[in-house]
Amino acid sequence: MQRRPVSYCESCGRPIHGKPFRAEVDGVEMELCLGCYTKMSSSGRAKPLRSQPRTAQSYKPRRRLPGIRGIEALEIVTDYAERIKRAREERGWPLSVLAEKLRISESLLRKIESGKYKPPIELARKMESLLRVKLVVPSEEPEEFEAEPPTDITLGDIVVIRREEE
Ligand SMILES: [Zn+2]
After folding, report:
1. 165: which residues sit within 8 A by CB, 6+ positions away?
2. Centre of ligand 1 from the C-alpha of residue 130, in Å
3. Protein residues placing their CB within 5 Å of the ion ligand 1
């Protein structure tokens, strides 16, 4: 009788008949059955372990999004409400005047000045130039950046990300 150690597919748990397929799945080395190996490698999840050069098609960045790294992440300063209010009052502008200059409603401006509504970058930029205050600063959380894409990415960025995922 031929002795053959039974190995089990590390993905589906079924015993592997014949030669197991070794592959790197999400950066982890795994032994897979033919079914799982075929499925995962066709979806690009599994990379063959044999020293094959990584082609553009089989290599998919999963954990890191290199395209995003270079993009400058911006955020609004935490005391934006105070800064806006102070600068507006220094100019002697009532809420209505600044709201009109910004083309936003007075109630929205009131929310911003009371800290209930953080202005989007574009609006904050407008306020910066009107009030001569600093409101937009580079983001200081590169670590969280990797875990989830920034919420204020532009349409151009989305196109880049999609292209990389293809
Ligand atoms: Zn399997």
Report:
1. 60
2. 62
3. 9, 11-12, 33, 36
Domain extents for the chain?
A: 7-48, 66-72+140-165, 74-136
Q: What pTM was estimated for this model as a whole?
A: 0.44
| Separation of CA 55 and ligand 1 centre (Å) | 24
> Which pLDDT tens digit goes with each residue over 83-121?
999 999 999 999 999 999 999 999 999 999 999 999 999
Token pair 């499925």 is found at 39
Nearest to 75 by CA among 127, 121, 122: 121
Q: Which residues have a Cβ under 8 Å from the Cβ of 35 and sit 6 or more positions away?
A: 9, 12
Pairing assessment for the beta strands 15-16 and 136-138 based on DSSP bridges: unpaired
Architecture of domain 74-136: Orthogonal Bundle (1.10)
In this predicted model, what pLDDT tens digit does every residue of 110-157 receive, in sequence order?
Answer: 999 999 999 999 999 999 999 999 999 988 655 444 445 556 656 666
CA 63 / ligand 1 centre spacing (Å): 24
State the sign of the Cα–Cα–Cα–Cα dihedral 54, 55, 60, 63: positive
